[in-house]
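[SOLVED] Need 3D model of a two-part complex

Original post:
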Amino acid sequence: GQQVMQIPQYQHVQEGEDFTTYCNSSTTLSNIQWYKQRPGGHPVFLIQLVKSGEVKKQKRLTFQFGEAKKNSSLHITATQTTDVGTYFCAGPSGGSNYKLTFGKGTLLTVNP
Amino acid sequence: GAVVSQHPSRVICKSGTSVKIECRSLDFQATTMFWYRQFPKKSLMLMATSNEGSKATYEQGVEKDKFLINHASLTLSTLTVTSAHPEDSSFYICSAMRDYEQYFGPGTRLTVT
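Solution:
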């Protein structure tokens, strides 16, 4: 079955440092979504990428979708303590555009 | 907009009893809802897809008789964990689909003693 791999599993940075998490799928994806889950909270939708090579920015967050539509990355510039949480990528699975397979997530901690 | 609630937020039950968890989309209608299970510091594992007015679709390895799902209206899906055992202890999260986005509920922490 489809696998969505994410690295690193954990990342600890000093406030102000940059952070990147990478997502790789075993199959080509029609789209990829990113979610953030704060400690003790639930996943919150961040963004969806659809086009090959697409790059989208949300303030300090930059999302990229690979040319082959099998990998993606999330980059945070100048991290802040509010960025703490687990970042998940997710891709459609089972031939459905609605069911998602989530990566294992990257837990980001930020030292103030 | 796009708020999803779950009830209860926490529940402790004895082994052998059944527990019902409700998932509601508060300000939109959702023909499709999803039920996930999340272990500590782990990813979300899709358990089943709940479809309004029809039977739920379960993922491989998820016992449909163990985890009963009912999606009786466009704003409510319920997950009943039947004859719960300690290994069913987990964080259960639902999501409701609107357009292409999934909106997650706050989750239910189930502890089976």
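Edit: DSSP finds no helices and eleven strands in chain B.
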